Each structure stands twice: as structure tokens, then as C-alpha cells.
Amino acid sequence: MRKILIIGAVWVAPNSSAAGSRMLQLIELFLKQEYAITFATTTQKTANAFDLKSIGVDEVAIDLNSSSFDNFVKELNPTIVIFDRFMMEEQFGWRVADNCPNALRVLDTEDLHSLRNVRQEAVKKESTFLLEDLLNSDIAKREIAAIYRCDLSLIISTFEMEVLQNTFKIDSSLLIHLPFLLAPISTKTQQVWKPFEERKHFVTIGNFLHAPNVDAVLYLKTHIWTGIRKRLPNAEMHVYGAYPTQQILQLHNKKEGFLVKGFAENAEEVVSNAKVVLAPVRFGAGIKGKLSEAMLCGTPSVTTQIGAEGMHADLPWNGFVTDDFNEFITHAVALYSDAFLWKESQKNGIEIINKLYNKEKLNPFFSSRIEALKVNLKQHRSQNFIGNLLQHQTLRSTKYMSKWIEEKNKK
Questions:
Q1: Is the domain of 21 the same as that of 165?
Q2: Which of 8, 11, 139, 215 sits CB 3.0–4.6 Å from 114 for a disulfide?
Q3: What is the pLDDT of residue 286?
Q4: Is residue 192 domain-shared with residue 104, that is, in the same domain?
């Protein structure tokens, strides 16, 4: 039987984060191919976690820095091991390589953490971000090393593919561009969407454990909302997201029409009822789930260059993209007020989803790449010299640190 082990950074929670939705998409893809899937993580389950057992996936709790994982993975003997983010590869990659050397090792980056981190530092310092800054990032060095140690890394954004190939010079044989795997938006789906006239208010949504979302909402409140509210005094700004901090909750102001709603039980319903999605993202990476969700719900959006980055190729955006907050305000008001502009933007979103995120086209492409790698794994690894170098025992500091911690814990 073909088996897949997924080592998750956290439990899958598609209602809380785009990363959770992405992981569930991958799981559903492999289930359709009749893989037996085991999802393992070191973290505690939250109330928002998806019940993977309900779709036939085994759930296993594992420990950090423990040889119990060696016994577990050897007995499971998976065909493929997927690491959810580079930190999981750092912790468990060497154990998988030691105990299941023939298993295909796949890294699902979710997004490039180093790109997000370096951009965040630039925002804090009020400096200009340059791609060259990544070359001096310690997180980038760790992340790129994990990519080299794996047989294939899943890259969600076209921009990140360019960064990895052009800035870090990583060979394309180690990478695959695999964005969100979404069902095409059918005419039938479009017919049940609420029309322009029946929608009201602005919305933003995002997990508040994610720093870019916190920053975007603070920026929305301090730089953007007052300007919109002056022109649209009856409009409201609805802020949704799991795990809101006290800093976010304190922004709630009914008089100003800025309403912090907290966790959305049904994000799709929330976005489908809104007229416009606002996402003034100042730093981050990957694909923004709130913006793909907007397109899936027929809701136009206004965002920044970083917000839309790597998401729409050369297709027109589902609304407007600008880094100037005065333009942001003007575009938000225009989308909210002009039915023709709103409907044209909605059409753009449909085209983006159906051309770039169509799982009916992406799934076979990804599956064929996986099967080809499994057949030619020995040759593939022999050509990845840097990966072999990083697997060499003299450089495997993580392994020996983990073994030292395990012995320390025993005492």
C-alpha cells in the first residue's frame, strides 16, 4: 500500500488560516489517488482543528527530540514524507533519511518564511526591502538548506519561484510551482452570488497569530478607514480572524463603524455578503488566502503590491492594487459605489481562479511530477550535490543537538 506521512507544524485548521486550507487541499489530492495518509504533529489540538479522521486520515501525536519517532516512522514505512514548513524538515528530516532512506522527501514551504521575515524587518526599520537582503538572512540560510535536503519543494507563488531560481540559484529540478488547488468557478456558482445591490460593508479577514495580518489591520485603522468613512458614512469595516489579540480587540469602535468581529465560523459566508475586501498588506509572502477567498466569493478587493504578488500572473486584478494609501481609499470608495466597475472586477477574479488555480489541471501536473521522481529517485538525488553535502554527517548539527537534548531529558 502506498503511504504518505505528513509532519505538520500545527494541526490542520482551514477555517483559521490559508495554510490550513492549503494542507487540506494536498490531503484531498492524495486521498483521491488512494494513498493511505498519516498526519503527525508535535502540537496540541485547538478547537478550530479539522477532524482529519472524518475523511480517513490517521492522526498521530509525535514528540520532538525523541527516538520514539524513529520507531514510528520505520514501522509506518511511508512512500512519501511531506514536511509542513522548513522547521519540520529541520527537526525530522534527518530521522526520515536515516530510517526511511527510500521515501520521497517533499517540503511544502507554505510561503518563504525568510522573505516574510526580512520584509517585516524592513518595515520595522522603515527601510527599503531589497532581494539581496535575503542573502544575509539566517532564516533564509536554514530555509534554503531544507529545500536542498528535500527531493522536491512546493512553491506557492510565482514570485517566490523567481526568487529561489534567480536570487538563490536553485535548480528547477528541486522546485515545483503549486498554488492553491481550487475548483473552477462555474456559471452556476456565479448565479447564486449576491449581486452588487444586495451587498454592503467592507471586510478583512485573517489569522491574528500571523504578524502581517495584525500589521494590515492596524494600518487599515490608522491610515485608511477614516478616509473611507468620510466619503461613505453608512459603510462599516468588519474585521474577522482567529485568535484576535487585545491590541486588535481594542480597535473596535462602533461609532466609527470599525467593528472587530473575531473568528468567523463561516468565512465564505462573511466574504460573500461583503461588497469589498480590503487588504493593505505591507509585508508577507506566498499567496494571500483572504484575496483568493474574495475571488471565490465574487467579492472585489483592494490590496498592495505585496498582497497581490505572485497571485495573478499578467491577468488584471480582482479590483485594485496600490501601495499609496490615498489611492487605496479612492479605489475602495470607487469599487463600493460603482456597480459597473465592481462587476468588471468580479469578472477579473473569476478569470484568475479559473486560469491559474484550477485543480483539474494542476492535480495531474503535480501527480505526474511525483511519480516521475519516485521512479528516478536515485538519479535525482545523485544530481543534487549540495543536498548530499548537507546530508553529510559532519554537517548535521540538528541531529546531534537533538540527540543531546534527548539524553539530557532522560536525566
A1: yes
A2: 139
A3: 92
A4: no
